[in-house]
Amino acid sequence: MVSVNLGVLHYVLDHIYCTILHRTKIGTPFFSKGWGGTNLELLERMVNQLFPNAASLAWPPAVIKPAWKTKWETNNACLKECSFATPCEEELLHALPPESRTARVAFLVPKSVPAEKMACVVHLAGTGDHTFQRRLRLGAPLLKQNIATMVLESPYYGNRRPIMQRGSKLLCVSDLLLLGKATIDESRSLLHWLEAEAGFSKTGICGLSMGGVHAAMVGALHPTPVATLPFLAPHSAVVPFCEGLYQHVTAWDALKEDASHPLAKCNGEVTLEQVKEKLRSVLSLTDVTKFPVPKDPNAVIFVAATDDGYIPKHSVLELQKAWPGSEVRWVTGGHVSSFFLHGDAFRKAIVDGLNRLSWRKSSP
Predict the structure, then answer these.
(1) Which residues pair with 327 in a beta bridge?
(2) What is the pLDDT of residues 259-271, one digit of tens each?
(3) Is the pLDDT of residue 68 over 90?
(4) 251 pLDDT above the threshold of 60
(5) pTM (global) more than 0.85
């Protein structure tokens, strides 16, 4: 009985958190400027082209040349930061807001250890994670095990947030897809740099919530085995926005009124149900089950919460079913409480995922 009550408490906490953070009248809802017009059409076309060609995506990806600047160092570790132009296709680059076109990265690495004897994991941002600090705190204890942490600032977040955007509330539906596509492109280039230029022998990709979805996509597209570690993540953005708590903080009236969207060109008045169905259709483009199975599913570890008010269990299990050989680990808690209480479980998944990879042989 106690465990049931605790489960309900965790679930209710997620609802309270969402209400305080998103459902008050203080802020704007998601997608208050509508669908995104031609940007949405561009993204739909690009993503639809991705699925049949995902297995044969060009590799290596766009090469980046990070110029690292040391922020601080101790006897055992060093924190560096750099920025670089996002390596997206030109058409996609022009669709991004100017503030989001420069990627920013933090790199926490052990000192006095050669790269070929280290692993590095790229940490991607969850919804509302505008700084490096949370993810650096998650990765810092792993330095003792010679695991470096690389943190990518998400497009539309932090210093890359458009000037007209309030907090994490993306203005258009197209922004969510642009954020995801740019994150995937940047992450693929960073993994290539870690392996081909920096010489790391093992690499991984992880993220919480939205970052976990992007991590799964990047891991699926990587041409060689990589530890893929989605934490508290759904299989698709449909889940939080059309089925979960975010449906209560979505600007349905703005989407309905957006005359630039193709729905508005049909005969008769557009209904709310049509709008909701269209959003479901658009966001289904983020369905990770449509992506290829990662090269080594054994190195894929999902960490999910038993009483998650944002991500239902069926969503996690759907992705595990699509990727035979992957593992799901459950932690007791909700979406919010698990983030604060289960850092050790996330770190153990990172270590175990990397341990399931073979060390790459150094090039002669």
Answers:
(1) 301
(2) 444 554 555 678 8
(3) yes
(4) yes
(5) yes
